[in-house]
Amino acid sequence: MKQARSEVQTAVKAMLAIAVMLFLVEVLIMYALRYLGFEFGTRFTLLNGILLAVICAPPIYWLVLSPIRNQYIRRLRGEGDDEDLSHMAITDPLTRIMNRRGITVGLLDAMAHAERYRTPLTVAMADIDLLKEINASYGRGGGDRVLKDVAGVLADALRMPDKVGRYGGEEFLIVLPHTSLVQGKKIVERIRNSVSKWDFNVGSKKIRLTISIGVTQYKDGEDLEQLMSHASKALQEAKQGGRNKVVASKSR
Ligand SMILES: Nc1nc2c(ncn2[C@@H]2O[C@H](COP(=O)(O)OP(=O)(O)OP(=O)(O)O)[C@@H](O)[C@H]2O)c(=O)[nH]1
User: Fold this and answer.
1) Residue 198's CATH number
2) Distance 110 CA to ligand 1 centre (A)
3) pTM recorded for the entire structure
4) How many structural domains is the chain composed of?
5) Ligand 1 pocket test: which of 129, 133, 135, 200 has the largest number of ligand atoms within 8 Å of its C-beta?
6) 10 Å Cβ neighbour count for 123?
7) DSSP strand E in 34-188: where?
8) Rounded to 5 degrees, what angle do the CA atoms 175, 176, 181 make?
9) What pLDDT score does 97 carry?
10) Which of 89, 99, 122, 203 gives 184 a disulfide partner, CB atoms 3.0 to 4.6 angstroms apart?
11) Angle between helices 181-197 and 131-157 (to 10 degrees)
12) In what residue span(s) does the GGDEF domain sit (predicted)?
């Protein structure tokens, strides 16, 4: 209660200060205009000025000052910093999706869940085809733009609780909980197909590109390294098979 009252007092004081400042600015403008030869009644103008200052002060306070003040208070209290930092620690700065650390934690969670509740889990490794050539043709900036947009297409194509993260330079890891290999293959095939039909902007040009995907299903008792190695092998097969392909790891 006491805190709410002091908040109201602060707001009223700030609004009064804004109103006074606005009024002073208006008076200055009025004298400047008069100096330039414009003529108007002083009393009428002063009344208008007060009215305008009183009307404008509350929105200026609520829209501009109050958010800045709240943010300042949050920073002072150290609130939000931890959240921001932990978010930054698991986010890839280029693509804004999870980085390797973030998606690995997500995958470990999904593995634990699958093992505990005996639900299927499918994992896919997607890799942009011939990114080196895109870099060579359009510069590293062009390659970066493509990476960012591919990440966007992948993220848009997935639904909760699926996850995607940038696992390496041009590699993306896709985690599909509650999904069998047969279902997972269909999902990643749909993703591969939509990437291949997407027009990617590079500078003023639009280009087409493809991705290759290796997909595998988690088996109880498997560790992260084993699971990732199956996904990587399947991806290598997709590359060797001519790229723009989905290859599922052989039944194990
Ligand atoms: N622009 C950009 N390029 C990257 C980034 N990370 C990795 N690369 C590039 O990705 C390319 C990967 O080259 P390769 O492994 O030969 O693969 P590729 O050219 O995509 O060919 P395949 O994977 O065999 O289809 C290299 O040229 C890297 O420099 C990045 O963050 N930005």
Assistant:
1) 3.30.70.270
2) 28
3) 0.72
4) 2
5) 135
6) 28
7) 121-128, 163-166, 171-177
8) 115
9) 94
10) 122
11) 120
12) 119-251
Quick one: the chain helix, strand, coil %, rounded to 5? 65, 15, 25
Q: How confident is the model at residue 81, as a pLDDT? A: 61
Residue 3: per-residue pLDDT: 56
State whether 47 and 169 are in the same domain: no
**Residues listed for the chain:** 252
Residue whose CA is at the smallest distance from ligand 1 atom 15: 132
DSSP secondary structure, 38-79, as one string = ----HHHHHHHHHHHHHHHHHHHIIIIIHHHHHHHHHHHHTT
The strand pair at 211-217 and 246-248 is best described as parallel
113 and 233 both lie in a single domain? yes
pLDDT of 160: 84
Q: Closest by alpha carbon to 195, among 232, 155, 224, 231?
A: 155
Based on the domain organization, do 65 and 158 belong to the same domain?
A: no
23: domain range? 2-79
**51 vs 1: CA distance, rounded Å:** 32
Cα(195)–Cα(209) distance, integer angstroms: 7
Q: Is ipTM strictly over 0.90?
A: yes
Mean pLDDT in order along the chain per 10 residues (252 residues): 68 88 88 81 75 88 84 61 75 94 96 96 98 95 96 90 94 97 97 96 92 97 96 98 95 61
Last residue of a domain, one of 46, 79, 112: 79
